[in-house]
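Practice problem: predict the structure.
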Amino acid sequence: MSRYWSSIVNKLTPYTPGEQPQIDNLIKLNTNENPYGPSPNVTAAIAQANSDSLRKYPDPNATVLKQAIANYYSHFGINEKNVFVGNSSDEVLGHAFRALLKQDKPLLFPDITYSFYPVYCDLFEIQYAQVPLRDDFSINIDDFSPENGGIIFANPNAPTGLALSLGEIRRLLDAHTDSVVVVDEAYIDFADGDISTAIELVNEYPNLLVTQTVSKSRNLAGLRVGLAVGNAELIDGLERIKNSFHPYALDSLALAGATAAFEDTDYFERCCQKVKQTRAHFTSELTKLGFTVLASSTNFVFAKHQSASAKVLFEGLRENKVIVRYFDKPRLNEYLRISIGTDQEMTQCTQVLATLLEAP
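Answer:
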């Protein structure tokens, strides 16, 4: 605490990101990074943009990137006026909190979800209420019935990996037509079955905003690009905040790389499929070792062992240079969150766990 800080800084409890340890031969399965590198088209586009033109400011409207995103979702009737981009999905979410979710009534979100939500509420002085998840960690749409100034939730949720179907999201939107509903879809591209992007509903519900990122399924966590898709009125609100804060939000290299990532659909789909296949195999192997694994729609699994302590396993994995995520919080402290890496990395993780479980 400093006497030079403003009053709001003294009250903040900042978000704690997953650690980025610098350890040789580390198997890093703690921050849900994609195990595969970016598309060769992406690195080529960045190399081409790395030129004398960097002396100039980038396009503040990110026109080419917005058009690439709109083209990708054009089958849902999306055009560039429905698209917003920012420097990471965290920045996009921050703009949404200020532009759309700071209201006279409390913002609602699950009590177990992305831990940045209460941080933003404290930072922007937004009143909020947390809605408890069911005992099985699923979201009950009916529990979001109180009057509110907005609703936000991650779908699939973090750190559980569980997801709502479009039918459930539609039911929520039908019940809250006067509030903005933000669906945070950082992991949606790893989902299967009836779990799919709520962007399909944007033109049906003017109060729906969907946020996404290139960090996970598009292999670009280091590029820091996020996006939102919604009704043009919502997008204009985000643009007003951005242009009052950071008009040149994305640099020229990020614009080039993210655009190429959205244009290379074949590479994107192949990588997503690889991750899903590895997730299925790893889940099966964990089950054989005595873990209960929640049904994941993400590039990580949330697993609890029938007898072994999650904290002890976390520490044992770390001693063997395998880093996973452990949340020392009520209801979560019996679980490990393990990112999906390559097949070889997951095999090594399984072998270390088996050895730890066999130890007296």
